[in-house]
Amino acid sequence: MPPWEKVKIITENGNQVEAIAPVIISASRSTDIPAFYIDWFIKRMEIGYLVWINPFNRKQTIFVSFNKTRVIVFWTKNAYPLLKHLKTLDSYKINYYVQFTLNDYELENYEPGIPSLNDRIDTFKQLSSIIGKEKIIWRYDPILVSNELSLPMILSRIKNIGDQIHEYTERLIISFVDIKPYEKVQHNVAISGIRELTQNEIYDFSTQLSAINQSWGLKLGTCGEEVDLTQMGISAMSCIDGTLIRNLFETDSKLVQYLNRHNKKDKGQRKSCLCIESKDIGQYNTCSHLCTYCYANRSKGEVEKNYFHHLQNQFAETITGEYIPPPDDERKEIKQTDFSQFIQ
After folding, report:
1. Phi then psi dihedrals of residue 237, to 5 deg
2. 333 burial level (CB within 10 Å; 0-12, 13-18, 19+)
3. H or E, element range at 6
4. CA 181 to CA 185: how far, in whole Å?
5. Residue 269 and residue 291: Cα distance in Å, rounded?
6. Based on C-alpha coordinates, what's the Rg of the chain?
7. Local mean pLDDT, 10-residue blocks, the chain (344 residues)
8. What is the CB-side half-sphere exposure of residue 148 using CA atoms within 13 A?
């Protein structure tokens, strides 16, 4: 089990509940919180907790307290809505960095819900200028080919983006599309002709990417890949990266003490994933980017339904605005999140 402490909190309805208090929060592998739910997330931070619903057993709900949180890792394809909240985040004295996926599948419309490439590049630069290039990681994720899209075309598009943003980041993380493990993905890509790369294609692509990177000087890495590309200058990296977190936030003594004790691989992730333990607080079937290759959405209709519910109750305990029945615990006055305790 993850090493999260358990704390007692009082909900908005005045009920006493037990909550986990993770030190590292992932926001999120399951949906794009900065793009669609950042107002909700900031409000839940202010309140001090949120509720996560287990996607495999929806009767199981977990209260997540921000009481011990020291790091938030944001994942996004559109960080623009996040920009207006950066000062608020900084005021909480909680550390954060951003995994920014910046792909170019505009012509194929594989990512129909995202802004234009030029707008996303502008946002990337703006965010980097505010928080520092070491705290914004460029992801081109996933690498895919199709009837319409060849590897030389992908490499050309990556070079176009990299030529514009390489001075605004220090890392580029890539992954290759996975179709076979996900039945939902198989269904969604059937018409588009998207397919996985062969091993020879992966080697060829990686060799050429490393050559392009000679002029950028970025650290190249893969996410969740078993293939060894070290000879091409591409290492296996982690997205929730204990070493990176320590280096970025070395003055946070509470965080460093935690990492000294807890810096293990997250057993809840794939075998090839090297991330350390974090609590992901997103929900499946809530991302309105509606990417063709996405494993986290079952259907467009379900996403639209969930987002409608969210808009009806934007600051509910859950992303989807679902009502969580109060427990039968005895009500008791318990102090909520006090961020002042984290000021060094």
Report:
1. -120, 165
2. exposed
3. strand 5-10
4. 8
5. 22
6. 20
7. 88 94 97 98 97 88 96 98 97 96 97 97 98 98 93 98 98 93 76 89 98 98 95 96 97 96 88 92 96 91 95 95 63 43 36
8. 11
